[in-house]
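Tokens for Alpha amylase catalytic region. Go.
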Amino acid sequence: MREQKTVSEQSSKANVPATDAAQWWRSAVVYQVYPRSFSDLSGDGVGDLAGLIDKLGYLELLGVDAIWLSPIMRSPMADHGYDVSDPRAIDPLFGDLATFDELIRQAHDRDIRVTMDLVPNHTSDQHPWFSSALGAAPGSPERDRYIFADGRGDDGSAPPNNWTSVFGGPAWTRINDADGEPGQWYLHLFAPEQPDLNWDNPEVLADLQTTMRFWLDRGVDGFRIDVAHGMAKPPGLPDLEHPAEVLHHTDDDPRFNNDGVHDIHRAIRSVMDEYPGTFNVGEIWVESSQAFAKYVRPDELHLGFNFRLATVDFDADQIREAITESLAATESVGAVPTWTLSNHDVPREVTRYMPTGDDAEGLSDDELLAIGTARARAMIMVELALPGTAFIYNGSELGLPNVDLPDDALVDPVWENSGHTDRGRDGCRVPLPWEGTEPPFGFSTETDTWLPIPAEWSSLTVESQLEDIYSMLSLYRQAIELRYARLEFSGDTVEWYGAPEGCIAFRRPGGLICALNASPHPVPLPPGRILLVSTPLEAGLLVPGATAWLV
Ligand code: NOJ
């Protein structure tokens, strides 16, 4: 076990009692860094670890407790790092182990914890295990680390079942045997370059535990577990009863959320428990709150990444229901709730909140953007007012919208694998604008960045927002600071207030009141003294698309 880092012992935040310091993550603000898009110091147009170290001062200024790094391990990058060929090495695109160690050291010096993605459901097809499986015979120990099966039909030319990949197309790919003849099929719930591991094989868990200790011993403070509702597969691999959409699945889908996954989480947790002060958060795409709650029972994941606020409309009833159900789910098992407005897989909130259909009638693009931005301001104040752990996706604090990229710029494997029917997730992964008046806005010295940055982002750079007290960045900084400094944010529950139609209002036990106006009309505020508003009041009223914090 590593020595306790001083960073884990500190609890400078007013609303976190010092005795809870080992559970610092219970009320933390965690900032997701998508490494390709954050900051590029090597000048190749792709972000890297040196670029991240260079910007730690910015993250300290923003006031976040921790970063979550999307995958930085060695990878052929078929899915931008979610296809890992060596889970215990840093990909040269991002740096090396020495740079990673330096990142941890410098982040800890600034009281910022470092957490990283782990990808246990699948490996890259370039992983040595998969290469040896391809060269081995059916039924061999090498093949048993993955999910190989004979095809259906007399000649085995039909896939073993009807599963489709989350990225589109079949979830099975057939390989040739050593003699060049068509052989077995292997399962890949994502791209063909991401073969699924066989979690019934104990070697798979043992290797993951080795990987976890490798990073924890280097000082990592936790993990985000990719596809945490995957891994276990149902006996007999039954067919899908109805076709699944690209990038979506329902709770009756046999590909995910199989009961065996909970034993895997218990085994993962036992390693985490060797390292006090660390946590793991699982990516859990399930619809039912009961199903979600199972993952965060006391001996499984510390936290479940909760997509509810990232998927509801800007609608008071939907937002209130998302909050109530999320709180009930975590409370039922004594777990901590989590919140986010977006990540690298879902459209950015500014764009999601723009009016559509009849509501958009007669509005210019600039007006739509202004409304989406105002609503995103309101919603980060709702998120940060809630008890639990708040996740922020890099660029949210700048109010970045999704980008409509041209076809020839798209690199998400979803675009190819879906046969160009789904444009994928590139639009929310465009590099961050830091400074200056034209792309690449200080992100890199290379103008040909891995995804093009729109020229319109000159008004959204960090530089242009830092000194502007009305900017999104300033709102984030103020809101995060208040959340830490004010005792009114204490308490694990929310009490709902009566609110005008189309609005919500809730109170934290410490005394904070949060009021959101998602209606089309200005509304009066609940009684109290205003701490922060997302948009200035008009005639003493909370304007449409705004949130106020009161005490
Ligand atoms: C979830 C990750 O967030 C996503 O980006 C990735 O494509 C899939 N898992 C497959 O690893």
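The domain at 128-187 is CATH 3.90.400.10 (Oligo-1,6-glucosidase; domain 2).
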